[in-house]
Amino acid sequence: MQAKTIIIGGGMAGMSCALRLKAYNRPFILITDRLGGRVLYDPERKENYGALFVMQNYHYARKILTTGRWINTTKVMFHSNHSKRFATLSRETLSCLPSLLRFVKELLIFFPHYERFKRNCLRMPIQEALKLDPFMQAIFDKPAGEFVAEKNLRQAVNSFVGKFIFACTLTSYDKISTLDFLNVSLGLVLPVYLFSFDENRMRKILEQELVLDAAVSVTRKKQGYEIKTHSGQTYKAEHVVMATPAAVTSELLGIPAIRGVSRCYTFHIKGRPKSIYAEKMWNLFSNEYTASALVVNWDGTYMLYTRTPDANLDEYFDTHELIGRFDWDKAMYVHGREFLAERYDEHLLIAGDHNGLGLEPASVSGIHAANQIIKNS
Ligand SMILES: Cc1cc2nc3c(=O)[nH]c(=O)nc-3n(C[C@H](O)[C@H](O)[C@H](O)COP(=O)(O)OP(=O)(O)OC[C@H]3O[C@@H](n4cnc5c(N)ncnc54)[C@H](O)[C@@H]3O)c2cc1C
User: Fold this and answer.
1) Is the pTM of this model over 0.90?
2) Domains and CATH numbers, the chain
3) 341 CA to middle of ligand 1, Å?
């Protein structure tokens, strides 16, 4: 089958690209094995097994996701180790006040730069947007550990900011870039909400264009690309947008270097948590624990997020019944600083969270890919 444009991958990047092309009446096919990707919402249980929250400033991701309940960040217990824990409003956090104020000041400086950067990234490659703003270039290149030391933020970060970063990335803050660090940290100062995703509605919107299948090869031809799929179909396209996870994109295109990835295992549990985990709605852990977060859901069930698949539930619960789980062996591409350019060649663009973590960067990259196609056709 011949198509003008083929998008491969239907996560936030692929869906954002598709909706943009549709809005501009550009023909395309979206090939994906599932809609949503790392957004995995169960409408019956009203639970997310993948990404969980959106922030107030997720302007592009929130066009696809339905914003739900506000997450009250004062209802958090931070666990340093088995004998030390403290709440958001506590003597421990107050003792970090000078460091915390410096941290908030850095977020206030970052915020307008980041908003402008996202807008620029809709219409130009990340590298160009970075060149336009030396502040963004500096934080893109700098490991978060260096930034924290330079700005004298260690006390606040070691106390609780680092635990928030670990909960969101399952990675120690000093292993990620300053851009990812500041972006994720905005969740400590901006309103944060749970969300739902209406997969059926998206299927209806894309019913003419959606093909549920998986690409098994993507081969350059004279006039574009040829894509073979798991079901044995062959497609030819002038433009291709690879919106698959970085590891799949790297494998299908033979790209050797991509960012390293953290793992996340989501356990949905009915039961009684140990009393120290029942004091607040949200428990966030230091990286001394295998769990990064334990959260109570709207219906009194619990979500436990861990970095190992064989977590010992007895550590966190007095009684437990596993009612669901999802294993994300490749959860978040946050380790290292490899850059994956969006323009692979004149016919192929790459979209996704390869260069910046989260639903919003993924959406921005998808819209960017669509804008390139719209501009050139
Ligand atoms: C457990 C967990 C919690 C998270 N929590 C948050 C959060 O609260 N907030 C936040 O902002 N971010 C969060 N993230 C990160 C966020 O989910 C991702 O950054 C974002 O969803 C990435 O979107 P994407 O479109 O780039 O990739 P994906 O969502 O991975 O989409 C890729 C798509 O490609 C498809 N695909 C794969 N292989 C093929 C193939 N061969 N052929 C065709 N299609 C293929 C997949 O099915 C999928 O639909 C979380 C991630 C995880 C795993």
Assistant:
1) yes
2) 2-50+197-259+336-375 (3.50.50.60), 71-191+262-335 (3.90.660)
3) 18
